[in-house]
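Supplementary notes (optional reading)

For those who missed the lab, this is the record we used. Protein: Sigma-54 factor interaction domain-containing protein. Length: 306 residues.
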Amino acid sequence: MLFDSFPDLAVALGRRFDAERAQQVSRRATWVGAAQHGMQALSSQVVEDHIDDGPRVVRLGRRVHEPRAFLPGLAGSGGLWLRGCLQAKAAYASGEWLVLEGEAGVGKLAVLRAIHQHDHPGAHFAVADAATPGRAWLDDVRRELQGSGGALLIQHADRAAGALLETLCRLLEQARTASAAPWVALTLSPRHDSGELAGLLRFFASTVELPPLRYHPEDVQALVPFFLAKLVPDGRLECSPPALQMLSRSSWPGNIEQLWQVLRNIVQHCRSGAIQPRDLPPECRTVSRRLLSPGRPGPDRRRLVR
């Protein structure tokens, strides 16, 4: 009798497996569909970017490289990059003041400016750089915080110290209770001293980290034509596949800003045709980095949101 029941048991287990698999596929299809629908809702303006489900969007088994609309002035489809942008945008939409962390050159200013331009085109957007504060720097910050709406970005806030930091904290505390204070964001390096900045960070409910370019190297294939279109608007210059592959395999310690500067220098002596490997600087022709698996973070990768 026990052996006679094995076929029925196998059939039952097979049906249960099929049902669970169907639920997983359905949930994944729902997630991807919702993401695509959400991104389409943001496409009312002419913008540049990709949408991505993990490392790549998969449609019928092929990888998609076509740009998808997201935020003005941005490009990229890496999972960590897109996730950071969406989380920053969610904080902006909620009205919560935001801390945006990331290495130099990852695009913190570009992301915040793009979010503000998308949600409030034409509205006031001010930038105050704490790395080079002049004598009137605090006066400028005070004036912006007393303004009517808009957005204020305080760059390199981890460079503020001493009396400057104390005064900045007092100004932000006053602005929190004002009825018409602007939305405020800070940018920080990922290795700032949290203890020293505790008095400043208490005003900010959300923290998002933008990843370095080495954590989303697939975006180089979108960034290169995006930047070339800005540098050579007539479209007469493109990047050859071998050169693009070489750029994609570079380590980019200076992140997106370094890629921009490399292409900017190339355009100075190459205005048409195709960029070849010989046109690249030596640091781009020497590959010495180890690719990180998206599923196994490197030792210095931090949580994107706390």
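If you only remember one thing from this example: The first strand starts at residue 58 and ends at 59.
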